[in-house]
Amino acid sequence: MSFFAKLFGLKQKATVSKDVVTQATQESPLFNQPSFLELIKKRRSIYSIGKNLQHTPSEIEGLIQEAVKHSPSAFNSQSSRVVILFNESHQNFWNIVLDVLKTIVPAEALAGTEQKIQSFAAGAGTVLFFEDQDVIKGLQEQFELYADNFPVWSEHSTAIAQFAVWNVLAEQGIGASLQHYNPIIDEKINIAFDIPAQWKLRAQLVFGSIEGEAGEKAFIEDESRFKTFG
C-alpha cells in the first residue's frame, strides 16, 4: 500500500479498477513508502516531460480519482471537478490553447510561446481542474452568514485537490507542472470537451515521464515567513 493510500485511508476493494491501481502501484519499480514530508519535497515543477510512462491511462485515472475524492473541502462541499485528457484529447487541448494564444501574443513572442506549448503537448496527459459554481451558490444560499467566504473556500478546495494529485503523480515518478491558461481558453475548452456551464476552470496540470530534472529551488528566509509562540 502506497503512502497516499494510507494517507487517504484507502482500503483494498474487490473491484477490478481499484485492484489494478493497487497492484500497479505496489509492483512499480518506482514504488516506495517515503514520509509525507519527503513526498512534498519530491514534488517539483517538471517542464521536460515525455510520453514514456510505465503506468497505463486507467491506472493514472484511478490514482487521480482517489486523490481528488479524498481531498478535504469546506463544509465537505466536494466542489472540485476534474477532466483527465490522454492521447488525442491531450494534444487537442494544447492545440486549442496555442490557437487562442496566437490571437493575443505579439508576433515577436510567438515562437517562444509555440515552443512552450509544444513542450506541454509532448507530455502524456493533462488534468483540468474545475470548481462547480452551482455547489458554491447552493452553499451561499444555505449558509448566508458565510456567503462571502464560499468562493474563497472553493479556491482552497481546488488548491488542495491540485496538490493531492500532483503529489500522487510525483510519488509514482511522474513529472508534472501546473499551468493557468484560464480564463482565455474557457469558452473553446468548454465546447471541445462538453464541459457543463457551471464548471469553472481553475488550473491545468500537465504530466508525463520525467525527461529532465527540476533545477535547484530557492527559498526565502524562515525568519520572514514563520512566527511561533508559546
TrEMBL record:
It comes from Acinetobacter pittii (Acinetobacter genomosp. 3). One of its GO terms (cellular component) is cytoplasm. It comes from the Bacteria. It is found in: Cytoplasm. InterPro entries: Frm2/Hbn1, Nitroreductase, Nitroreductase-like. This is Nitroreductase family protein. SUPFAM superfamilies: FMN-dependent nitroreductase-like. Keywords: Cytoplasm, Oxidoreductase. Transmembrane segments: none annotated. GO terms for biological process: cellular response to oxidative stress. The keyword Nucleus does not apply. GO terms for molecular function: oxidoreductase activity.
